Amino acid sequence: xxxxxxxxxxxxLCRCTGYSKIFSxxxxxxxxxxxxx
Length: 37
Known about the structure:
Layout: H1 2-10, H2 19-36
């Protein structure tokens, strides 16, 4: 879920202006991977 993504990303990124775009991209990728199964 969102918390898992935040934990995975927080080690690599600060919450800068690009963070929200990257976060939404990761969410889309996660949904895509789930539906692809």
